[in-house]
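Hey,

Quick one before I head out. I ran the complex with zinc ion overnight. Inputs first:
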Amino acid sequence: MKVLEAEFVQGFICMANDGWKQGWHERNGGNLSYRIKKEEVDSIMEDLNRDGEWREIGATVPSLAGEYFMVTGSGKFFRNIINEPEDSIGIIEIDELGKNYRICWGLMNGGRPTSELPSHLMNHEVKMMASKGKHRVIYHAHTTNVIALTFVLPLDDKIFTRELWEMATECPVVFPDGVGVVPWMVPGGRDIAVATSKLMKKYDVAIWAHHGMFCSGENFDLTFGLMHTVEKSAEILVKVRSMRPNKLQSITPQNFRDLAKDFNVKLPEEFLHHE
Ligand code: 2HA
Ligand code: ZN
C-alpha cells in the first residue's frame, strides 16, 4: 500500500489540520509524532526507502530501537500538511541503539524531523513504558490560553491542575492525573526533553511556560481531545479572571471527591488542598 492510503496517515493529517483550525499552529509552531504499529509498518513497507543516511537523534532512546514514527517536519507549517503531506511530514526508523534515525518516507526536498525530536522521542519512551505500550501519540501545540496563564499563575503542578480542574466539571475525569509544568527553558534540546519526560512519567500533559503544551495519548482522538479539553479549560479561566479577580463560587474539594466516586477515577488529594 502507498503511505498516503494508510488509515493512520489520514488520521495523522486530519489531527494536524484540526490543530491548525484551532489556531494553535501559527507559522511553523507545534509538532506531532505517532509511533506506528507493526502491522501498519508492514502494510506500507513497499513504499518505504530503507537506505537513507543515519543521523543523530540528539537523545538516546534504547526502548524505541527499531520503531517507526510518523513525524511533522522541522520548519514546516501545519497549515500546509493537508495539501503537501510528502513535503511537510515523514516516516523515520530508529536504529538498534536508539541513538540515530533515518528518513524512510516524506520530508522531500531535504526536510528534517521536528526540531523537538528529542522531546518527542523521550516522551514516547516514557509513555510507552508507563502505559504498557498503549500510548502512541505525542503532540506539541502553542495553545493560546494555557500560554497566557503561565504569565499569571505560579508555575506549579498543583496550582495549574486544580485551577484547570475547577473550570469544567469533566476536566478531572479527562485528566485525573493532573498536569505538570516546566519552567521556561530553551526549546529544541536535550535539557527540555529530560525535564518534560520526567513529568510525563506522572502526567499525560506537560505545560511549557510561555511556550505551549505537550500531550500524550493512545490514539489521535484521545490525544487531540486531551489538548482541546485542557486548552478550553484555560480559556474559561482566562475569561473568569478577566471578569473579576477572584471566583464567587467554584467546585469544592468535596465536590471533586464526590465526582471521583461516581465517575470511578482517582483524584490525588495533593491537588485538592491549595486555595
Ligand atoms: O516550531 O513549536 O517548539 C516548532 C516548535 C518548537
Ligand atoms: Zn513550540
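The mean pLDDT is 97.

Talk tomorrow,
K.
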